[in-house]
Write a structure and sequence with these properties.
Layout: E1 25-30, H1 37-51, E2 56-59, E3 62-71, E4 86-91, E5 95-100, H2 105-115
Parallel strand pairs: 1-3
Antiparallel strand pairs: 1-4, 2-3, 4-5
Helix pairs in contact: 1-2
Length: about 120
């Protein structure tokens, strides 16, 4: 699966330490924008993870847990597609999505987390 890593001009304002033994995945959702849409996106992602049975699963004999976490700023607003949605980053692969709306949660969970396919229409290059 091809992910998107931030370039030198897109350095994140924080460091995330995920070791190779860490089988957890994290979705960081920016809540520092657009009238509460980030909180709504995070809530929808959490709901979809439960509905689709992907919050906790067994992958390659290892237990994997997916967590949705909110953060104040991902520092990617200039690269974010303009629109009414939120920005988010999926770790450990580092895929960056922009203009994500609550209605996009089902597709992101099914495609990116379930099937390992990047949702190209939302990805920020």
């Amino acid at each position: 699966m091809a992910g998107h890593s931030p370039s030198a001009t897109q350095r994140l304002p924080f460091t995330i330490n995920i070791t190779p033994m860490d089988h957890n995945r994290r979705l960081f959702v920016c809540i520092n924008q657009k009238s509460g849409v980030g909180e709504a996106v995070a809530k929808s992602l959490k709901k979809e993870l439960k509905v689709q049975g992907l919050k906790k699963l067994l992958t390659g004999g290892e237990r994997q847990r997916v967590r949705v976490q909110t953060c104040n700023c991902l520092d990617i607003c200039k690269q974010c597609k303009k629109g009414p949605g939120a920005a988010l980053i999926v770790y450990p692969e580092g895929t960056v999505y922009g203009n994500v709306r609550p209605a996009d949660a089902a597709e992101l969970v099914a495609e990116h987390l379930g099937r390992g396919h990047v949702v190209k229409r939302l990805r920020i290059d």
